[in-house]
Specification:
The complex is a heterotrimer of chains A (325), B (329) and C (292).
Chain A lengths: L2 H29 L4 H6 L7 H11 L5 H13 L5 E2 L4 E2 H36 L4 H15 L2 H15 L16 H40 L2 H8 L4 H23 L1 H15 L4 H10 L3 H29 L1 H4 L3
Antiparallel strand pairs in A: 1-2
Chain B lengths: L4 E12 L2 E13 L4 E5 L6 H9 L7 E10 L2 E2 L5 H7 L4 E4 L13 H12 L4 H14 L5 H4 L9 H13 L5 E5 L7 H18 L2 E6 L2 H7 L2 E6 L2 E7 H6 L4 H8 L43 H5 L5 E2 L5 E2 L4 H5 L1
Parallel strand pairs in B: 3-8, 3-9, 6-7, 7-8
Antiparallel strand pairs in B: 1-2, 1-4, 4-5, 9-10, 10-12, 11-12
Helix pairs in contact in B: 3-4, 3-6, 4-6, 6-7
Chain C lengths: L1 H5 L8 H11 L1 H18 L1 H4 L32 H37 L1 H16 L2 H11 L4 H28 L2 H8 L4 H12 L1 H24 L10 H8 L7 H29 L1 H4 L2
Helix pairs in contact in C: 2-13, 3-5, 3-13, 5-6, 5-8, 5-11, 5-13, 6-8, 7-8, 8-11, 9-10, 11-12, 11-13, 12-13
Classes of the chains: A mainly alpha (325), B alpha/beta (329), C mainly alpha (292).
């Protein structure tokens, strides 16, 4: 089948998923105990009668539920996710202001994890019973078992007390005015600890996955063929085997994007990273539901887009499904 | 004339949970330039391991070449450096395998996989190597070679893939090609095509071939000489004609009798489907006697005492059996 | 080579007996089991041996460990005993972990079994729903659920279960797809066994090995989830938990390292116990991998 056609189908699929998330948000507002107007106002019982009346009018809360859903979807499609009364700003504006840092954090952590994890996994597969192999297996179990926010806090203790080389809070130093290049470097400097924290769990998982698939691939017939035609060791590992081992890594990376966004929420609160996570945390404490639901929506969209990209990359790395459908 | 390949007293062992398995015991064989040597025997008799030993590809661990010599044109392969082995594999000796479905790397185009072999062993450019790989595809009988070079393995049938394997193996004009049951996984009609192709290419290039198979029919059609293996030993070797018409070892006789046939009115001595009673002994526990003794109708006391050595009965024909006279009569 | 190995097939035993034997040989599995038993002992018997109210103020705030005898692990920012918190905090954590884990596995197996066994339209619909749940970042979704409904350990457990089941569902579905085409299932169908019976009595028992491994890991993940929610202040405010202690101690991290470090170690050890048991079980159920 034509690649463009496949992509179009995936795209329409993605749009349906986005709509479904909006319907979920609508349902959550109505399923929550109490008056939906209160939920939308975001001040559980604290909003003035005047404000509530205005909300009821705006969202048609006196009309049948299906009409309300229509109104809600209609507004959402136009980019109107409601008004945050806590921040006194439109929710979409609030979120768009914070989504950049989250994307930066997540992609940094993910690429870091994929590169380092794959590298470690390939090295470990060289000697399946060697020291590095044992280390990778152990590191994976440990990385998997430590709460991510705790890992972050431990890094804060280490880097604030013992080796104060990385900043432990914020995304850049507001007191510095060092031009655009200096600002970028400053952001990267601030990014290291949060990205490392978020990445550690996934480094461990990718290293383990790479090691396992490399070992399987290295025993396969086509690697024997490569050896039989005179390909030498490093090229067997780094080219013939790795090129195949990438396939499961891409699959897993795509599936894990949602869990990475979740992890980012916790890591952001540890390092006061000004992204969606800290916004979610602050607005939950303030019971600012429109913002909270807006964040849920936007992060789901983030995952949907990431899945779409994975799907394309996947077709690129595995010729067997490229024309499959 | 000195042989192209000379294997002498090769010993290969495998560590298994049940102990050390002696996979190859004193295997000796010669291959001369331009000839086709057939190696026959049932599964697990060591034919594939002989091939992997020659290629230097015995999986280690658990495998281990414990003794013997393998010489190609007088050069000892067992003591050669890794670098030298990489130079020789694909250039001097090539190999094709049993499973064409899984023997090609699924993520690379087949043209690329042939060109890689050329680029590894010869100083040439990528585009020239690609051109040559298209030529190779054409030579192994793949239609529209220039287009098919851009295909991925999964887009080809098993027979096509085996042709690609042959193209990879012959890309650098090796002196010796080892074909390890190249047709076992293929349809009968495709099998014949692959055999024809191998014979044709062999005549054109003069490459010597070691043809490993359990198919006596293929042997009779292709091979100039035959070596029969049983439980890690070569038990009989000679010209194909002699082996097929005058087999001396009881196992070889059994093997030939086992070839199913469709003659009318099968006799008692030659039923449609014959079999050799019993099973191959465990390679971890071979004992000191003839390995075939437990299954042999002609067994005597000598047979359980020691393994008979391979001795000449004519210029070309050697057998390892104590009771040749009783077997013959 | 396979032919060499198949010559030495060891005597066969009931797969469960074999698996228990293999599990006992796995140092990871045994270490995990010991760790977990210690944590359970600490959390269940601890409160009887060390009966100090974790909410009670007993000494000056932020006293370091080892300074005073009645607060051996120090005090928190309100002057409450940290050791008492560690002892009591395990109960809520383990309760939520087990309940949420159980809920996750139940929903996951139900959905996965139906989708995998019936296939077709049922599969299509159930997998679309699964996909939808996988698109929502689980922690954020759980945060929203917990905030919309008043947080209690039951709401927290339910929220974790609702957001976590897709992984189990996918695994179950894959197993069912694999097994339902095997001969013994066809045989059961051919003698007229009902679908219900085939699903639960034929297919499920044969897919248990990977599901048990996954269940062990799922409980670990649920505990991490509970810890994350409590850390953010979204846990049950009336139940003392390790995550809550870390959340409360976060502001004092540079003055009182023990407030975040100690409860974190407890969570880590608990989850590590489950992960190692999962590893051990995985080795035990996959004899092929044991050879590596």
């Amino acid at each position: 089948m034509d690649l463009a056609l496949i992509f179009l189908r995936r795209l329409s699929h993605a749009v349906l998923l986005v709509l479904a998330v909006l319907v979920l948000n609508f349902l959550l507002i109505h399923l929550a105990p109490g008056d939906p107007a209160d939920v939308i106002a975001g001040e559980m019982g604290g909003a003035t009668e005047e404000m509530l009346a205005e909300i009821r009018e705006l969202y048609g809360l006196n009309k049948p539920v299906i009409v309300q859903l229509g109104i809600y979807l209609g507004r959402a499609v136009q980019g109107d996710l409601g008004q945050s009364f806590f921040y006194n700003a439109p929710v979409s504006e609030l979120i768009l202001g914070r989504i950049g840092p989250t994307i930066l954090l997540v992609t940094a952590a993910l690429s870091f994890a994929i590169f380092v994890g794959t590298f470690l996994g390939v090295l470990a597969s060289y000697k399946p019973k060697g020291f590095l192999s044992g280390f990778v297996t152990l590191f994976a179990v440990i990385g998997y078992s430590a709460p991510i926010f705790w890992t972050g806090l431990m890094l804060v203790i280490v880097f604030a007390w013992l080796i104060p080389v990385f900043p432990i809070a914020g995304m850049y130093d507001v007191t510095l005015d060092n031009g655009p290049v200096g600002r970028v470097l400053d952001i990267l400097h601030h990014l290291i600890l949060p990205a490392l924290t978020l990445g550690i769990v996934y480094i461990a998982q990718y290293a383990r996955l790479t090691r396992a698939s490399m070992l399987e691939i290295l025993g396969s017939d086509y690697i024997r063929t490569a050896r039989a035609k005179g390909v030498s060791g490093p090229k067997i590992y780094g080219y013939h085997a790795l090129r195949n081992a990438i396939i499961p890594i891409v699959t897993i990376a795509g599936l894990q994007f949602g869990s990475i966004v979740s992890g980012a929420v916790l890591v952001e609160t540890v390092f006061s990273w000004p992204g969606l996570g800290t916004l979610a945390f602050d607005s939950i404490l303030a019971r600012d539901y429109p913002t909270v639901l807006g964040i849920l929506f936007f992060s789901a969209v983030l995952v949907i887009v990431a899945n779409l990209i994975t799907d394309i990359v996947y077709r690129f790395v595995d010729p067997r499904i490229r024309t499959g459908g | 004339m000195a042989p192209l390949l000379s294997v002498k007293n090769l010993l290969v062992e495998f560590k298994t949970r049940a102990g050390i398995a002696k996979v190859l015991n004193n295997v000796s064989l010669d291959v001369h330039s331009g000839e086709i040597l057939g190696v026959v025997g049932e599964s697990g008799c060591g034919k594939s391991m002989t091939a992997l030993s020659i290629m230097g590809l015995v999986p280690s661990p658990p495998g281990n070449v414990a003794g013997g010599t393998i010489e190609l044109n007088g050069e000892d392969l067992l003591s050669a450096s890794n670098k030298r082995l990489h130079q020789m594999r694909g250039k001097e000796i090539s190999m094709i395998f049993q499973e064409p479905m899984t023997s090609l790397n699924p993520v690379f185009k087949v043209g690329h996989q042939i060109a890689e072999a050329i680029l590894l062993h010869e100083k040439t450019t990528k585009s020239l190597a690609w051109e040559r790989s298209v030529k190779m595809l054409d030579r192994v009988g793949i239609p529209e070679a220039a287009i098919r070079a851009n295909s991925y393995p999964h887009e080809m049938s098993g027979g096509m893939r085996q042709r690609v394997m042959i193209a990879i193996a012959l890309a650098c004009n090796p002196k010796l090609l080892i074909a390890d049951e190249p047709t076992t996984a293929l349809d009968v009609t495709v099998q014949a095509q692959i055999f024809d192709l191998l014979r044709e290419l062999q005549r054109e290039t003069g490459t010597a071939i070691i043809m490993i198979t359990h198919d006596m029919g293929a042997i009779s059609e292709l091979a100039d000489r035959v070596a029969v293996m049983y439980a890690g030993h070569i038990i009989e070797t000679g010209d194909t004609k002699d082996i097929l018409s005058k087999p001396q070892h009881p196992y070889t006789r059994g093997l030939i009798a086992c070839v199913p046939h469709l003659e009318e009115n099968p006799s008692e001595e030659r039923p449609y489907l014959a079999e050799i009673p019993g099973v191959v002994p465990p390679l971890t526990d071979l004992g000191k006697g003839c390995t075939f003794a437990p299954r042999c109708d002609f067994r005597t006391d000598d047979c359980t005492g020691s393994q008979p050595s391979l001795s000449k009965i004519s210029d070309q024909h050697s057998v390892s059996c104590f009771n040749l006279n009783t077997v013959a009569s | 080579m396979s032919s060499i190995e198949t010559q030495f097939i060891p005597k066969s035993q009931h797969p469960i007996v074999e698996a228990i034997k293999a599990f006992r040989q796995s140092w990871a599995g045994m270490l995990g089991l010991i760790l977990l038993l210690l944590v359970i002992l600490f959390s269940v018997a601890g409160p009887f041996i060390y009966a100090v109210d974790p909410f009670e103020i007993i000494w000056a705030p932020l006293t370091a460990p080892g300074v005073v005898a009645n607060a051996p692990f120090g005090t928190d920012h309100l002057g409450r005993d940290v050791l008492a918190g560690l002892v009591y905090g395990g109960q809520a954590t383990l309760f939520v972990g087990l309940t949420a884990g159980f809920l996750t596995i139940t929903i996951g197996i139900l959905v996965g079994a139906m989708a995998g066994y019936y296939g077709g339209g049922v599969d299509e619909i159930l997998m679309r729903i699964t996909e939808f749940f996988q698109v929502l970042p689980a922690l954020l979704f759980a945060m929203v659920l917990v905030t919309l409904f008043t947080p209690s350990i039951y709401v927290v457990s339910a929220a974790i279960g609702i957001v976590s089941w897709p992984t189990t569902a996918r695994l179950t579905r894959a197993e069912f797809l694999r097994i339902k085409n095997l001969e013994y299932v066809k045989a059961a169908q051919s003698i007229g066994a009902r679908d219900n019976r085939i699903i639960w009595r034929v297919v499920l028992p044969n897919s248990l090995a990977p599901l048990i491994v996954s269940a062990t890991l799922t409980i670990g993940v649920a505990i991490l989830f509970e810890a994350g929610l409590s850390y953010l202040g979204l846990g049950d405010p009336n139940a003392f938990s390790w995550g809550m202690m870390i959340g409360a101690g976060r502001e004092y991290i540079l003055d009182a390292w023990w407030l975040v470090t100690l409860p974190g170690i407890m969570i880590f050890l608990t989850v590590l116990g489950f992960s190692l048991i999962g590893d051990g079980l995985n080795d035990a159920f996959n004899p092929r991998l044991r050879e590596r």
